[in-house]
Amino acid sequence: MKRLPVTFWTTLFVTLVCVALVALDFDRSWLARKVLLEQTERNATNLARAMSGHADDTLRAADTCLTDLEERIEVDGTGPAQLQRLHRLMVDHVRTLPQLNGLFFYDETGRWIVNSRPRLDRAANNADREYFRYHREHRDAGPRIGKPVASRSTGRWVIPLSRRIDKPDGSFGGVVLATIDIEYFSRFYAGFDIGNNGAVALLSDDGTLLVRRPFKSESVGISSVRTPLYDAYTRVARTGTGEFRSTQDGQVRLNSYRPLQHYPLFVTAALSKDEVLAHWWHDTLVRTAGVLLLAGLLALFGQRLVRQMRQRLRAEQELREARDVLASLNVTLEKLALQDGLTGLANRRQFDVSLGNESSRAMRQGVPLGLAMIDVDHFKAYNDRYGHSAGDDCLRAVARAIRQQTPKRAGDLAARYGGEELAVLLPHTDAAGTEAVAERMREAVAALRLPHAGSPLGIVTISGGAAAIVPRRGIDHAAVLVEHADRALYAAKATGRNRVMRHAELRET
Ligand SMILES: Nc1nc2c(ncn2[C@@H]2O[C@H](COP(=O)(O)OP(=O)(O)OP(=O)(O)O)[C@@H](O)[C@H]2O)c(=O)[nH]1
């Protein structure tokens, strides 16, 4: 499988980190929102429970007064002394129970008989009130909670709580009424922290709105039957929570609703979802902006890093290629510098270096160093007859034959010494050995049988001069060796060519 480049992994890593950052932040925000909404729902439920208990207690205290009054009227009658006592009792109750706006007793015609007010308006008549008509027509003994009305005696909004009075014969004997101040509930509800857009309300089971915060007098007594909240209360469950849009102000709220324990009423506490989530939105937007900025910076740095890595990798690749080109160029240059272009043998420069090195080595080791100087016979004539280019070909052929005959020991070197003159350096070789090698070379060239009309033999031949010395310190042995070999070559030329001569002095060494 192809290995993916490091830039790919870096890009992948940076991308993953960025995505993980954003995903973690999103998850955290969503969890915070969930927790906040759950907390809000719990708050609304606790509020509804407190309201329900409070309303129950409020009504029960008022109802207890009514039961007390009912019993006294039915047992003691309504003589002047009894009425006076009833008046005192009513005043007492209203003083001690802050929720009570007033206590009243009307006879069977609706006439005001006694109440908790200091002055009694005997001309007033409440026979037209809904609760009065109800008790006149129904015999049930339980208390009745009526629709809120503006009190005739005080002008304040009150909730009527009433009970029927029976005469000893069981016929209708009038109504005792407690009016409960809506203000009392409003004051209690004002103490709740429901934010700016929260709402709480007390409603009767028939859907009539009794008290609401925020308070609007035109809302008191209206019907909530066609609201999603009432629908849920009557059709789904009498205790529950839900998200409903208010028909009063159009706000979506988290509602918790529950009935009163002893009276046909229910309460609802509703907290505005938008308001609850406003802080969360603010926090989330600020943090998300931060996280996005961070991720953006990371991506930017990552991108720069990857670009730099790419550039570096490209530069490294280019460097490697340049180095390879340079290396091969160097090899070529080296070869060019050390090789003779025409014959492919070592050039004069390499010959001189090798001669110096081998001479020193031979001196250190005390061994002989042999040198054969070789020259093509009558080469001028060859050139003249066959042309310079053919002369070059001839030189190449001679060089090839000499290279083939050059021993392959370390240090053995065949070189073009200059013009048509060649030199063969043979370390560890004495004069006889050198002569033998040169002789083999001569034979090999003759065996080529290259035609040479300018030569008495009719073929290309070579002459060789062989010499060897054991170099000693203090003398330029290299120069001496070349001179000896040259002299031997000269002798070979002088004595007829196509032969190899050994330098005479060497025989003495
Ligand atoms: N074609 C060709 N000729 C060369 C080259 N180098 C030297 N020569 C020729 O080799 C000839 C050498 O001639 P000489 O040194 O006078 O002697 P020769 O004709 O070989 O006669 P002997 O050496 O006495 O047998 C000259 O004519 C040079 O021009 C070369 O690279 N190519």
Overview of this protein structure:
It is a single chain. The protein is of the alpha+beta class and 509 residues long. Among the domains are: 93 residues, Beta-Lactamase (2-Layer Sandwich); 161 residues, Alpha-Beta Plaits, CATH 3.30.70. Helix content is 51%, strand content 20%. The chain is built from eleven helices and 16 strands. Strands 1, 2, 3, 4, 5 and 6 form a six-stranded antiparallel β-sheet that branches. It has a five-stranded antiparallel β-sheet with strand order 8-7-11-10-9, with helices on both faces. The protein has a five-stranded mixed β-sheet with strand order 13-14-12-15-16, sandwiched between helices. A hairpin with a 5-residue loop joins β1 and β2. α1 packs antiparallel against α2, α8 crosses α9 and α9 crosses α10. The chain starts with 5 loop residues before the first helix and ends in a 7-residue tail after the last strand. 35% of the residues are buried. The structure holds guanosine-5'-triphosphate. The site of guanosine-5'-triphosphate has 17 residues, from β12, α8 and α9.
Map the helices and strands.
Blueprint: H1 6-76, H2 80-96, E1 100-106, E2 112-115, H3 130-137, E3 144-145, E4 149-150, E5 157-166, E6 172-181, H4 182-190, E7 199-204, E8 209-213, H5 228-236, E9 240-245, E10 252-259, E11 265-272, H6 273-338, H7 348-365, E12 369-376, H8 379-386, H9 388-405, E13 413-418, E14 421-427, H10 431-448, E15 462-469, H11 477-494, E16 500-502
Parallel strand pairs: 15-16
Antiparallel strand pairs: 1-2, 1-6, 3-5, 4-5, 5-6, 7-8, 7-11, 9-10, 10-11, 12-14, 12-15, 13-14
This protein binds guanosine-5'-triphosphate.
Domain GGDEF: 367-505
Catalytic activity: 2 GTP = 3',3'-c-di-GMP + 2 diphosphate
GO molecular function, one term: diguanylate cyclase activity
